[in-house]
């Protein structure tokens, strides 16, 4: 490309790929094969969306479907998709999940669990007929779950604030490449090469919360796509827009093309807390966050955790970190003391272990199970025993952190005669479902079955005899 005098927009390419992955997931989520074809064949009029102005509306049923098949009616217990002439239900789009709620009528109640776009300009309501019978042509009332919708709106408006804050802190390259706006959380994907530092995350979080406290008005207007771009409105890379677009503006902060539902002022968000930040691919990062009731719930859980920690440590409020650090220091010191004592105990048992050595083809072989705090202590014990033997083979086994381990050490004169610690250790470890190896004079191996450690140790003497014969 450079040779041809062209410039490759790598950042734009990454954002486009992320947007495509999001579209692919949406297609999979809604099954755009049979269902889409069924709706196309019905040739329904466009659904009038009323959700920007109201949470409830009178309407009429224009279509019923079950498993992609049109119905004239459905009764209690049936899972159905309902299409209305007009609806306040937002159909999943642009990363924002669909609304839930109820469709009611004369003796009828349908619990709506999702709303989506099976084809362009049609909103379908997924749900279950809880009471009565619904027929095509029935007059009904559609009502959105208002609290859930407001939770979604908090997260969506917060997403716009987060987008602006990221570009302030990281640079204009940190543009949105995907998102999820749900009632309980928000997820925001953006272009950036490195993980955000704790300081950067804190700065982003503080900027967003300052804008929430400012209670900035959120306004919506329609304009042409060309005019919006001329005014510097943010458009998402890879998204398709019509001639007329919807601009969501947070006064003095941001202006983006967006078809989602929002609050009237940023103060309604309440609180914004980042819960996670991670890589999702080359040059792409993801932030997860909570707002409003979700943020308050998180704060309560963290305080509950802190209270429990304080109780366990006997700490007063505000002393938990200091007490926890002191407890960790004490624990580390106690572990070191225990390991030292175990090492001393192991060293003192050398004489007892030496008495258990046997002679195989004129070679002293010591194979025994011992107590050891770690692999280093086990190797040190093996070296001590080998040095005390003068000439011989030492195989020690221990269960460390619930795993069987084997250490084999061989004196230099026996290495010269052809014995190899790595081969002995590997062959013996197979008795306990493991393996290993190492140098001719020192090796270690592990296994899967601690109950068979004794069998592995018992095989050492026959293996030595076999190799010396």
Commentary on this structure:
With 469 residues, this protein is an alpha+beta fold. The chain has 4 domains: 31-144, Elongation Factor Tu (Ef-tu), domain 3 (Beta Barrel); 149-299, Threonyl-tRNA Synthetase, Chain A, domain 2 (2-Layer Sandwich), CATH 3.30.980; 315-348; 350-468, Diaminopimelate Epimerase, Chain A, domain 1, CATH 3.10.310.40. Helices cover 38% and strands 30% of the residues. The protein is built from 13 helices and 24 strands. It has helices at 10-30, 34-42, 146-170, 198-213, 225-230, 292-313, 320-348, 350-354, 375-389, 412-416, 421-429, 453-458, 460-468; strands at residues 48-49, 56-66, 69-71, 73-75, 79-84, 86-87, 101-105, 108-116, 124-131, 133-135, 139-144, 176-181, 186-191, 218-224, 244-250, 254-257, 272-281, 284-291, 358-360, 363-369, 393-400, 403-410, 435-438, 442-446. A 6-stranded antiparallel β-barrel has the order 2-5-9-8-7-11. Helix 6 crosses helix 7. The longest helix is centred in the C-terminal third of the chain and has 29 residues, at 320-348.
DSSP strand (E) fraction?
25-35%
Class of the largest domain in CATH? Alpha Beta
Number of DSSP E strands: 24
Rounded mean pLDDT is 89
In the residues, how many domains can be counted?
A: 4
What is the helix tally?
Answer: 13
Q: Output the CATH homologous superfamily of the largest domain.
A: Threonyl-trna Synthetase, Chain A, domain 2
Largest sheet: 6 strands, antiparallel, barrel
The N- to C-terminal Cα distance equals: 70 Å
Highlighted features:
469 residues, alpha+beta, Elongation Factor Tu (Ef-tu), domain 3, Threonyl-tRNA Synthetase, Chain A, domain 2, 4 domains, six-stranded antiparallel barrel, six-stranded mixed beta sheet, 38% helix, disordered N terminus
């Amino acid at each position: 490309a450079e040779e041809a005098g062209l410039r490759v927009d790598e950042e734009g390419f990454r954002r486009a790929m992320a947007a495509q992955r999001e579209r692919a997931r949406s297609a999979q989520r809604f099954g755009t094969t049979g269902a889409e074809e069924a709706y196309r064949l019905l040739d329904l009029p466009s659904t009038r969306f009323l959700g920007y102005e109201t949470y409830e509306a009178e309407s009429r049923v224009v279509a019923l479907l079950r498993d992609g098949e049109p119905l004239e009616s459905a009764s209690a217990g049936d899972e159905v998709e309902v299409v209305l002439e007009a609806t306040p239900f937002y159909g999943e789009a642009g990363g924002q999940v669909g609304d839930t709620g109820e469709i009611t009528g004369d003796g009828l109640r349908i619990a709506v669990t999702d709303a989506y776009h099976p084809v362009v300009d049609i909103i379908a309501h997924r749900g279950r007929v809880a009471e009565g019978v619904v027929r095509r042509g029935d007059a009904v009332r559609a009502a959105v779950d208002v609290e859930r919708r407001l939770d979604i709106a908090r997260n969506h408006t917060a997403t716009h604030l987060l987008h602006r804050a990221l570009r302030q802190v990281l640079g204009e390259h940190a543009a949105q490449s995907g998102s999820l706006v749900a009632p309980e959380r928000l997820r925001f994907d953006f272009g950036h090469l490195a993980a955000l530092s704790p300081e950067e995350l804190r700065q982003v979080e503080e900027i967003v919360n300052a804008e929430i406290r400012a209670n900035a008005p959120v306004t919506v207007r329609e304009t042409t796509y060309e005019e919006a771009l001329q005014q510097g409105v943010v458009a998402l890379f890879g998204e398709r827009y019509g001639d007329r677009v919807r601009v969501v503006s947070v006064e003095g902060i941001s202006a983006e093309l967006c078809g989602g539902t929002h609050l009237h002022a940023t103060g309604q968000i309440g609180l914004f807390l980042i819960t996670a930040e991670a890589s999702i691919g080359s040059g792409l990062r993801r932030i997860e966050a909570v707002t409003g009731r979700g943020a308050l719930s998180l704060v309560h859980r963290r305080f509950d955790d802190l209270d429990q920690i304080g109780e366990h440590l006997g700490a007063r409020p505000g002393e938990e970190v200091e007490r926890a650090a002191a407890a960790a220091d004490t624990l580390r010191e106690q572990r070191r003391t225990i390991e030292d004592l175990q090492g001393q105990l192991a060293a003192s048992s050398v004489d007892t272990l030496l008495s258990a050595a046997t002679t195989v083809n004129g070679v002293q072989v010591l194979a025994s199970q011992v107590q050891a705090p770690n692999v280093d202590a086990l190797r040190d014990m093996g070296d001590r025993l080998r040095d005390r033997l003068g000439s011989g083979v030492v195989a020690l086994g221990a269960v460390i952190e619930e795993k069987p381990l084997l250490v084999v050490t061989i004196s230099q004169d026996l290495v010269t005669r052809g014995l190899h610690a790595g081969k002995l250790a590997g062959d013996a470890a197979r008795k306990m479902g493991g393996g290993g190896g190492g140098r001719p004079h020192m090796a270690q191996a592990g296994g899967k079955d601690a109950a068979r450690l004794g069998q592995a140790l018992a095989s050492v003497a026959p293996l030595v005899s076999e190799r010396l014969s």
